[in-house]
Amino acid sequence: ADPALRETVIERVGDREFRVDAGGFWQVHRLAPVALRDAVHSGLRSAGRTVDPDAWHLDLYGGVGLLAAAVAELGGTATRITSVESDTCATDHAGENLAEWVGARAETGRVDRWLAQVEETASAAERARLRAGVTVLDPPRSGAGRDVVDSLLRLRPATLVYVACDPVALARDLGMLRAGGYAPVSLQGLDLFPHSHHMEAVAVLTDEGPLS
Question: S-S: 53 plus which of 6, 78, 83, 171, CB 3.0-4.6 Å?
Answer without folding.
Answer: 78
